[in-house]
Design goal:
Blueprint lengths: L22 H13 L2 H6 L1 E8 L1 H4 L4 E4 H9 L7 E6 L3 E4 L6 E12 L8 E14 L5 E15 L3 H15 L1 H4 L6
Parallel strand pairs: 1-7
Antiparallel strand pairs: 1-2, 3-5, 4-5, 5-6, 6-7
Length: 183
């Protein structure tokens, strides 16, 4: 049966987006990493984000301006030949007091850099935990972002090389500005 409000197939639910489904916000962020789509990454973030990568890199939990956080990602991800961020199901639970939603998902992030290294990959596996809040325009925005590392495989040293390559690419290669080359 056709339902004009829902398209050709009334038995299919409408496609959810970050404006209707808070869990889609995590997927949109991870896809933006892999596509080097910095405006899309920024669109998932509140103006200020509490970031906790301490289980991966040490240091302290930080509160960052969203534009600064995106610049950090731009400072490393374009240096890889490819990345692929995958999650399992995203679980959502309402925070006490309403409004905010806690998202949790197991994740694996593959990073490929053909550098002549014996192992051209670095994999980090863990659990993302995010807090998202509704924006006035209906989107869900990330206010807190945590990655809890479970394990790693491959060559973590590729991060250093990727950072130096990202600088070079930002200066002259379109991958630094957005979008990956095929191949």
């Amino acid at each position: 049966m056709t339902n004009p409000a829902r398209g050709a197939h009334s038995d299919r639910p409408p496609r959810l987006s970050p404006t209707t489904d808070p869990t889609a916000t995590l997927t949109a962020l991870l896809h933006s990493f892999d596509d080097l789509d910095w405006p899309r990454a920024r669109a998932t973030l509140a103006d200020t984000v509490v970031v906790d990568y301490t289980s991966v890199f040490g240091g302290q939990v930080e509160t960052l301006d969203a534009d600064r956080l995106v610049r950090r990602w731009q400072g490393v991800l374009p240096g890889f030949d490819a990345t692929q961020h995958l999650t399992g199901p995203v679980l959502a639970s309402a925070e006490p007091g309403g409004g905010a939603v806690l998202l949790e998902a197991q994740a694996r992030a593959y990073h490929l850099l053909r550098s002549g290294s014996a192992d051209p990959t670095w994999l980090i596996a863990g659990r993302y935990q995010l807090t998202v809040v509704p924006a006035a325009d209906g989107r869900w925005l990330i206010t807190e972002l945590t990655l809890r590392r479970l394990y790693e495989q491959g060559d973590r040293g590729l991060l250093t090389l990727a950072r130096s390559r990202a600088v070079t690419r930002r200066e002259g290669d379109p991958r630094g500005a957005g979008g990956r080359r095929e191949g």
